[in-house]
Write a structure and sequence with these properties.
The chain is an alpha+beta fold. It is built from 15 helices and twelve strands.
Length: about 425
């Protein structure tokens, strides 16, 4: 059991009658492990996520793909449970368990009925703290990951976005490399290397346990202490590792990269450097992104698909890291239509850079963001992700009303300013298609 812990209530939301509809509480254990929960009135499910402060950008070239490799291996068995035991534990109660690796963190998550939350906590605690990484497991999962890499190489959207990131950040930069690794890097990784990576990064002070649904915070904390306290894993004392605060901004390298694949379409991503993750202009950029290419009423969709029939799929996007950001447009079209499609994309970007968006587009963009935010948080899984990322990545949890207020406060001038700055920068272009 932990020597000490600190707990505080982060936020409480009540309905018009005064009843609590949502309460967020946060506990920090002496070991540095953070536990953040959101009690959701009326929910019958609960979702737990374990966020680990390590991702593909933390890898040296020799470790390329190690975070993702390790994510796979933690499902292969522990001292208490075999891989099959882990598989059937939540299947038997109708639950779901999975994981994903990102550039800056890894997340293991499970969704269950509220009554089965203790089981989900125990299974994830067992996996995270007590996995047995054997040589046989490494060799078996190596083949699975090589198959996964081949699958991504057959997906035009994956190929073009990986090529875009490589051009933007460089092939030697962790931000420019694919998360899953390459055939060469995965083939070279051995058990000892992965085991060292596991022990170095999977520490309490580098983790956040986020849980949302029908729950009691104090009970969840006790369950986490039991589940993660195996083999003395929580015995030490440490301060939690805060969000990444990387000093120098990672600059984007303009240019063009092309790759030949036997696809029917040409897939294109055209973009440029954007704001980093905690830039205050992210709300204005969100409204701009929605108006430009965030839905069927957006400028790019209307101009490229509806009016000209140049492509079936077209959308704009923004991606943010602690010290870097990208904005861009993704589109797939027939090879004969590539030049015209690119010309239209560039024209629309230049128009927005010069004149901003209209008042109607501003209100429509705000409405779309508000609706997407609220509707996306109706289930416990979405709430869990919001909690985990707020604690690990942002060190700030804005309540829903606070986020909506920030969206509503965006002005036409703010959108015009961010458009004029971003869309006049030198472009990064990735093109993938037939020869």
């Amino acid at each position: 059991m932990q020597k000490s812990r600190t707990t505080r209530t982060v936020s409480t939301v009540r309905d018009s009658g005064g009843a609590v509809t949502s309460r967020v509480r946060r506990t920090v254990l002496a070991s540095g492990l953070r536990i953040v929960t959101e009690q959701m009135a009326g929910a019958r499910s609960a979702t737990i996520g374990v966020f680990v402060d390590v991702g593909s950008r933390d890898e040296t070239p020799k470790l390329h793909g190690c975070s993702h490799f390790l994510e796979h291996l933690l499902f292969k068995g522990t001292h208490e449970r075999s891989a099959f035991d882990l598989s059937i534990a939540l299947d038997a109660v109708g639950g779901e368990i999975n994981a994903f690796t990102a550039k800056e963190y890894t997340c293991f998550h499970a969704r269950v009925l509220d009554e089965d939350l203790p089981l989900a906590v125990d299974v994830l605690g067992d996996m995270i703290t007590s996995s047995v990484i054997t040589d046989d497991d490494v060799e078996a999962e190596r083949e699975v990951i090589l198959d996964e890499i081949a699958m991504h190489d057959d997906d035009p959207d994956d190929v073009v976005h990986n090529l875009f990131a490589e051009q933007a950040f460089g092939a030697t930069s962790p931000l420019g490399r694919p998360i899953a690794g390459t055939v060469e890097s995965i083939t070279a990784l051995d058990r000892a290397t992965i085991q060292r990576f596991y022990r170095r990064h999977y520490r309490p002070e580098r983790m956040v346990v986020a849980v949302a649904g029908n729950l009691d915070h104090t009970t969840v904390v006790r369950q986490v202490e039991r589940a993660f306290g195996r083999s003395g894993w929580l015995d030490g004392e440490a301060e939690p590792v805060g969000p990444r605060r990387l000093g120098r901004r990672v600059r984007v390298k303009p240019g063009t990269s092309e790759a030949t694949r036997p696809f029917e379409q040409v897939n294109v991503v055209l973009g440029m450097e954007g704001p980093a993750r905690d830039d205050d202009r992210r709300f204005a950029l969100g409204v701009l992104n929605t108006a430009l290419g965030g839905g069927t009423s957006s400028r790019l969709f209307q101009e490229i698909r509806e009016r000209r029939g140049l492509a079936y799929s077209v959308y704009s996007f923004s991606s943010h890291h602690a010290d870097a950001g990208l904005v861009g447009v993704s589109v797939g079209c027939l090879p004969a239509k590539l030049d015209e499609t690119l010309a239209v994309v560039r024209l629309e970007l230049s128009r927005v850079a010069a004149h901003g968006i209209t008042a109607e587009e501003l209100e429509r963009g705000k409405g779309q963001l508000r609706g997407g935010l609220v509707l996306g948080l109706e289930d416990s899984a979405s709430r869990m992700v919001r909690l985990g990322k707020a604690e690990l990545v942002h060190d700030e949890l804005l309540d829903i009303d606070g986020v909506i207020a920030r969206i509503d406060a965006v002005t036409l001038e703010e959108v015009r300013e961010v458009a004029a700055e971003v869309f006049t920068r030198k472009e990064v272009l990735a093109v993938v298609g037939p020869s």
